Every structure is written in C-alpha cells, then in structure tokens.
Amino acid sequence: MKYLLLTLAAVSLLSSCDKGGGSFSVLADSSTYEQKAVYTARKIDVLFVVDNSGSMNNFQQQLGANFSSFIDRFITKGYDFRIAVTTSEAWRYPHFMSLPAGCTGYSYCAEYRTVFRKGASSSNYVLDNVLYDLTNPTEQQRLKDDFIGNAHMGVDGSGDERALSSFKAALEYQTMANGSASPNRNFHRPEAFLAVVIISDEEDFSHTGIGLNENYSNPNLIPVDQFKTFLENFTGGTAANDFSVSTISILDSACLATLDPNGSILRKIGHRYMQLADLTGGSKNSLCNPFDETLDNISSQIEEQGSAIFQLAKKPIVSTIKLTVDGVIVPQSDTNGWSYYTDSNVVKVNGSQYRPQNGAAVSLTYYPDLTIP
C-alpha cells in the first residue's frame, strides 16, 4: 500500500529516511514509536468520465458551469492535483478488443476516442496544477475554462455507453498506435489518490463483445467488482484509501420520471455505477440535484479520502495511540477524530475538525503490540 502522507513504514524506520521534514525516534519494542513531521497533503488525480451520447448536452454544460464548486476547494488549500476528462466510449478502440484486421470506421477504429479530451489547441490534455499560477485569479479562470472546453466535448458519441470499461481503457492507454507516448501516459501518480467521477444519464453495460447489449443477463457482462479489482491493481492500493469511483447519474425512478417522463430518450437508472461507488467508497449523486451542490459534495469527499491517512510500522496497542495536530490532541472518533483500521494497519483522520492543513505539525505515537508477529 502506498501513502505519500506521513508514512511510518518499517523500512523507513530502519533506514531513518524522513520524508516529512522531522525526525524519527525508534526505541526498543517495549517503548513508544514516535514520528514528528510537517504534514503535506496527499496528491490528488481526478478522472472525469463524461457521457457524450446524444442526450447529454445539458448535463455537460451544467458540469462546466459549476466546475468552480469542485475545484475552488483544491485551489484555496493549495493541493497538488491533476484532472483529465474522457468519454463513455473510450473503450472503442481495437487495442482493447479482439477485432478483425482492416477495421474501418470511427466506431471501433478512432484512436482519439480513447485519448483524454482536449477542448482547444491552447488547452492541456491533463490539467496539472503546476501548469497554472493559481495565485493569480486570471490563471484560475484559465484552468476552469480549459476544463469547460475539455468536458463539453459534444454529443456525437455512441449510445453504447460503457463508462466503466472506458475509464479502464483511458487509464491503460499509455502508447499510441504509432508508438509515441499517449497523452494519457503517467496521468496517475503512484503516490496520489485516484478519484474517478462518472457523469451519465444511462446505465453501464460493459461487456466483452462488440455490439450493443443492454441486458443484465448477458453472459459476457463484466461484473462490477472486476473494475474494483482493476483499480486495486492499477493503483497498488485499496478502495477508499487509494481510489474511489463516484457517480452523477439517475439514482431512482423518481429522477428517471423527471428527466424522461415519456420514456422517449430511453434514459436508465445507473445501478452498476452505484454498485461500484459502494464498493470503492465513492459517492452517489443524482442528476436531478443542483450540480453546484453535487460537485461540492464530491470534492469534499475526495479531499477527505485523499488526506490524513497514516501507515503504521507495527500493529499497535490501540488504546495507546496518541495523535496530535499543531499541539491539539485528536480524539478517537469515527465522525471527527481518528480511527484505526486493523486490516490495513492505518490510522485515518475522519471529518474536517481535526484534518491537518498543509504545513501542520503532526505527531503520532503508540506502543507496539508485541503479541502480534
């Protein structure tokens, strides 16, 4: 498991390698382990998967118009972030499918469908914070304009929306057909939290065949948990701690009736999107809710997931864990405080009250449990 944050890994302790600017005190096993450091917030990589089928124009516009509600939190707090956009048909390229030689036509042969979206020649495929002087309001607006251009990619895409296969294809696509580096290459940084955000008014029917098949009983339908497994392998981490998938989709029949009262557009409830959000610790957001509230909710959750997780070197005696931030003792609490997770051997700060800010002085001490190998 990888953490950029205050890492108490055994190898680091043995080598006295301090990534936090402080110093280790490594005592006998019967004594307290302690690390004091200057806290640095974890990097965040966000991939938006935007449905580009014929019914999505209004939602693409709402996404762009309310992007400030998402990104202002990251800008204000000085986070190190990257943002990219792909479509619900990024899966449509022979590299990812068994297609006959001589494939022609845009449906399965247009490589640009898999490459991250770029709205204008002056924009960037990946909106990296280092490419903008975000202390300057003009540069902040340039970042937002670039995102609007990238996200409003039009509605000429296929009605065979496979957003789950598409984020997998986009993340895997490292080399172009001509052998050059793909703009997608190395988008995700190993030390960063990866957040996938899907926006669609349809359901995902990702399967291993070519043709449209919107049938939950399709034997070739790819189980949702396989996409969780892909993200585990891709990030080398675990759900909620290292990655999440959130959705802005149709969550229930009431929203479906509001958006498609006559059933003429053939919109659907995104059951599989919601399932993956549950499996990965992401959030489920309704297309029927205001986009500003939804995007603020998603950015808040990503901020919480991407920060303040501390990997311990040994299993602790939980009652002896003591965490302080800028001299303030953080209580043990699943709401506002710290929690210990046995399986992953990490301490996580929950809620916003005690969440460290960049530059905060952090100290974490505990007695190791010598009864556990």
Secondary structure layout plus pairing:
Blueprint: H1 10-15, E1 23-25, E2 33-38, E3 44-50, H2 57-65, H3 67-76, E4 81-87, H4 106-109, E5 127-128, H5 137-151, H6 163-172, E6 193-199, H7 224-235, E7 243-249, H8 253-259, H9 271-280, E8 284-286, H10 291-306, E9 309-311, E10 322-325, E11 328-330, E12 337-341, E13 346-350, E14 361-366
Parallel strand pairs: 3-4, 3-6, 6-7, 7-8
Antiparallel strand pairs: 1-2, 2-14, 4-5, 9-13, 10-11, 10-14, 12-13
Characteristic terms for this protein:
five-stranded antiparallel β-sheet; 373 residues; 27% helix; six-stranded mixed β-sheet; Rossmann fold; alpha/beta; 14 strands; 10 helices
Radius of gyration: 22 Å
Separation, N- and C-terminal Cα atoms:
19 Å
Strand order of the largest sheet: 5-4-3-6-7-8
Helix content: 25-40%
CATH fold description of the largest domain: Rossmann fold
Shape: globular
Reported for the largest beta sheet, the result is: 6 strands, mixed
Q: How many DSSP E strands?
A: 14
CATH class designation of the largest domain: Alpha Beta
Number of helices: 10
Mean pLDDT score, rounded?
84
Report the portion of residues in β strands.
15-25%
Per CATH, the superfamily of the largest domain is von Willebrand factor, type A domain
Give the tally of structural domains: 2
Which architecture of the largest domain per CATH? 3-Layer(aba) Sandwich
Task: Give the H and E element order.
Answer: HEEEHHEHEHHEHEHHEHEEEEEE
Helix and strand content put the structural class at: alpha/beta
Low-confidence stretches: 1-30, 95-102
